Amino acid sequence: MSAVSKTVFVGDSLTEGGRWQEWFPELEAVNLGVGGDTTEGLIERLDEVAAEQPDTVVLLIGTNDVANRRAVEHVVRNIETILVTLRNELPDARILLQSVLPRGREYAEFVKEINRHVWQFAATVRAHYLDLWPVMAEPDGELNPAYTEDRLHLNDAGYEAWLSELRPAIERVQDLPPASRPIRLPDLSELGNA
């Protein structure tokens, strides 16, 4: 049948801590998670993502921006920049953007606001969106204490809860045909005066 799909998992320590190849043996899984990474850090290393030429990009970023008290608009703009850059660099890739995960309840409204904005933006660059909030958050917006020891990083139960949503999402995304290449219009400034 077809070649094994190369799937790049991109993000911060939550992604870095994942055993993606073990959890997705049917894929060629590449872990590009970097502990402590922010949206700015990821923007600076997007060429590393593009160089992998993945069939699918699975993205989770933003929680460290929240901890650094970046403004909602700042985080949203950076995630939008990441999505636009990935779409331009990888026109045929499937992109799955995941919602920023809950942390402590004091961050809940802030994180929900980021997620509302990026969810609306994702479709504009043909990216798919996976809302992890329902499975990961308590009613008050706290990361479910069963899934973490420090209100941020996930334990095995936390990764299992994440995978319960991520696995079917990746399967759905990869069942879709690759995005067709956008038609590139000529740059009129290069054509001279006609």
Automatic annotation (TrEMBL):
Gene Ontology MF, one: phosphatidylcholine lysophospholipase activity
SUPFAM superfamilies assigned: SGNH hydrolase
Positions in coiled-coil regions: none
InterPro entries documented for this protein: Ester_Hydrolysis_Enzymes, SGNH_hydro, SGNH_hydro_sf
Pfam families: Lipase_GDSL_2
Key words of the record: Hydrolase
Domain SGNH hydrolase-type esterase: 9-161
Protein name listed in UniProt: SGNH/GDSL hydrolase family protein
